[in-house]
Design a protein that fits this description.
The protein is an all-alpha fold. 81% of the residues lie in helices and 0% in strands. The N and C termini lie far apart (44 Å).
Length: 120
């Protein structure tokens, strides 16, 4: 029963995100807003409810299955990807470099901050 409560919890946040996204005509998808709201809720609550934990664990254990539709979509559009490979490879390469640079700068900042507080 806890699993169903947890799934209802997740779906409620997704619904709220969808409503907010459509109500304010935001360019962000509703499920993304829902996850942001869930994150804020968990930060404020400071612990994960048991029902939510019991719903999330099976989802995480089977996370690889959630990538099957994306893989099927890639195969479906393989011809288009072949014709537009250069912009795709370029954007993937640049976004990876950007992500690595941001992560390195953030890690540098966190280590300096911890060093000043005497934690390292």
């Amino acid at each position: 029963m806890k699993f169903l409560e947890g799934m209802a919890f997740l779906l409620a946040f997704q619904l709220v995100g969808e409503v907010v996204s459509r109500l304010f005509h935001l360019p962000v998808p509703g499920p993304v807003l829902g996850m942001i709201l869930l994150f804020v809720f968990l930060l404020l609550f400071r612990k994960v409810p048991v029902a939510l934990s019991s719903a999330v664990e099976p989802l995480l254990n089977n996370l690889s299955l959630l990538f099957v539709p994306a893989g099927a979509g890639v195969i479906l559009h393989l011809k288009r990807i072949g014709s537009e490979w250069f912009p795709l490879v370029t954007s993937l390469f640049l976004s990876t470099l950007f992500g690595m640079a941001v992560t390195a700068l953030l890690m540098h900042w966190v280590l300096k901050w911890q060093h000043r507080r005497g934690r390292v």
